[in-house]
Fold this protein.
Amino acid sequence: MPAAVGTLAVMTYNLRYASDRPPHAWPARRPFMAQRLREAAPDIIGTQEGLYGQIKDLATDLPEFEWIGLGREGGSRGEFMAVFYRRARLEPLEYDHFWLSDTPLVIASATWGHSNRRMVTWVRFLDRETGKRFVLLNTHFDHQVQFARERSAALIRDRLAAWGPEVPVIVIGDFNAVAGANCTYDILTEGGALQDTWKTARARTGDPTLNTFTGYEPNPRRSERIDWILARPGIETDRTEILNWTTDAEQPSDHLPVMAWLRLP
């Protein structure tokens, strides 16, 4: 289904970190991922788990995109919350990173009992097609510690105040919590601070019963969404979809990407 003129196609996608060892080695997954991403034609891809070499490979495979990111251990070290954007349409006006901890400006900090460092990469964009500006935050919450997920959600919600209420903000990522069944989700959405585009979309295409985390299973259908696209009120969602790539000979990742076609106010 072609996107309507003026809509912004946003994707969140956990890439599964690169490994050279089978099964699911990155060299085998890479061509399928690049092919599927070209077919999906997003304007923005917020990635999680990608390692530096993996991000560079995707940049090579998707030459129409630029990217912004930083390793969660600092520099090129650790996993990236890289933001790929279609350069012909989008211009980054500013960007930065913060860590999900009590000391968010300290690189690689972790204070909430989680062993993996967690962070946010954010970018303020100009959409050249519409002349509108917006902010996108891309993140990956902890997979083990619920307290860390809740504090992470609260920190992001507090950080939204850095941009006035009139600024369109989109928050995407792998939250490691099932939408609607975990208070992490409630913290971000309560009071309408952010809305779940899955719920506000005028239409959902594809199979709505899919899990977004598959573990490479061929039929993950328990309606568990841990990868979300959230948006401030005023941003309209034409449609949304969990893209089912589990039928590939080599699945590109152990997650399925989620896309939303958005209209900025």
About this structure: The helical segments are 26-40, 52-61, 146-159, 183-189, 197-200. DSSP finds five helices and 13 strands in the chain. The chain has one domain: 8-263.
